[in-house]
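Schema walkthrough. Field components (list of strings):
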Amino acid sequence: MNSLNFRLLLGVLLVVTFSLGVGGMAAYQRIEAMLYEDFDRRLVQRARSLSSMIEVEFERVSIEWLESDQDPPGHEDNQDYYAIWLATGGEALIQNEGLGAWELPRFGASAVKPEFRDLEMPEGRNGRAVGYLLEIKSDEDDEEEALDNDDLKTFVGPILMDENQTKIQLVFGKVDTVAQTMAGIRSSLIGLWIGCGGMGSLLGWLVVRRSLHPIDKICEQIGSLKEGNTGQRIKVDPIPTELEPITIALNNLLGRVEGALVRERTLTSNVAHELRTPVAGILSILEVTLCRLRSKEEYLESTQECLEIAKRLHWLVTNLLSVTRIEAGNVQLQTRKVLLGSCLREWWEPFQSRAESNQLEVVWTIADGVQIETDPEFLRVVVSNLFDNAVSYTPPEKRIRIGLDSTGNIAVVNQALDLDASSAAKVFDPFWRQSETPLEKGVHVGLGLNLCQKIVTLLGGTIQAEVKEVDKLFEVQLRMV
Amino acid sequence: MKVLLVEDYKPLRDSVSRAVREMGWAIDAAEDGEEGLWFAENHRYDVVVLDLMLPKLSGLEILEKIRAGGNQSGVLILTARDGVDDRIKGLDAGADDYLVKPFFLGELISRLKALVRRTYEQQDPTIKIGDLVIDTSACQVKRAGVAVELTAREYALLEYLARRAGQVVSRSLIWDHVYESYGEANSNVVDVYVGYLRKKLHLPDLPPIIHTRRGLGYVLKEETPS
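Field assembly_structure (string):
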């Protein structure tokens, strides 16, 4: 029942059968009306013809007709019945023999407008009759002529009429042949309706099936999409207008999935590179060192080198895990009120010696008493990353500016010769690096600022980077309030 | 034998260079793609070891450029990318071998030796020229069954001459394949080392095996009595 095919077919079937049914019924009723109109017209004609033969002879109502006719006109096949009554008094004057004991109902008291009725005729046949009022003429002047003419037959009524009784009521009935004709037409229409319904259903099924074929093609193409080949798109030609938005939306979705997969692959590739390469470094250093006996200094140097690489690995793994935890929403903040100025100075301490050895000048612009509510441990990770970057990338003998304004905005500004203005938008991308040779500089693989951005977002703040082309100053603004 | 190593990670570059040098081979090490391409286009190497993710120019770009320039050196890709697609890309671009980081140094050295054998169309790691037997996998030399102790540089010189046994090898060619590219080419140095080698390979009652072709260079071959 949920099948679109079935629903469309049912709809087509209902529309076809309903239209045919309504159309057939309308046609049937119209034909019936036309036939009855014609029947009634002929009924009136016959009744008028009969009434023209009625006359009064010798104070009796009579019907006069030619000998050559076996019955009065219009009564040839025992299909017609008539009866005549006196309009006043209602005595029956004449009725044809075929009626026997059965009597025609008496109706039609208007001379102007004949009245029609459906009747049940003798032998259970349906019939229809017309009744109306009629003024008869006296034909005594034609007596001679009537008597002389042997061809004339007269049917004379039994009741005498006086001079005042010139109006009679005539009911002329006829077996209803229209009903039989309509029964035939009805059977034909029902047959036609069933036949057209069946044919319509078959054609509808074919049309619906053909119309829905593009859906099958789309399904087929979706089914043939390979996991590895993300560049594939759905293409049905020609595509029905109704399905075009679906394929466009689907292709857009595939594009987004492809983009996500490419980003994931790039990230995985970068992570693999950043993890595998240091491990390869440790392995090769140890292998070379241990392949023969070395001096004490050589062992010391190799050990020191391996320790540095291990530290870098530790930092990298910690950051990766932090990013993963934050992305998974698996982090609980422990916020409290923090005096930012004193925190910044405390968090700078680990970088002090490196800054001094690089002869970096550190300028502090700290507003007093700035207090915010945040998770200090997470904020420390962010600020430490900014300090670490500043110390690592600022050329010797240059300046680092650390600022905190009264609204709680933190700024770390340093000179970064490698960066340009376009880099500012990319510095928060994972594993983005202006130079691809960061490994020799220490621990920078392009993950620190990405982690900072995620933490700051988690803490409800914002972080922005800007590179000023003129003096190559790289400024990171941290807004925690 | 001479190797070009293009690797941006200094600890790895240094340790691999050290291992190759201690094996007796010469090695030039480049820290980025541009430098690596310059070395590859301006010097002759028996094997090139390429990282893929390099600054300035990727390993694949270097590979395509050097192959387009007709360089037939054996190329080994040394990378952290372990996907099948990456391997296919590398091998299709003209690499001869592919090694994923992290790796064991011994495996890298074995693969480098295999690439050199392939370059010189020699399947057997043991080279035999008359009574001289060089085991390239163990870096050991014997003459008439007697082990000959050689320095790394002497061994590298002998292996190169042995790889081209029977051919006259010019001093400049020896320099290109046995010495690193940082210094000026010096044919006297080659002559001195060939002299050292001759002395060490000379055994009583045995004919000389390294011969000088005046004005042309040296040839290593077994001298048949005329």
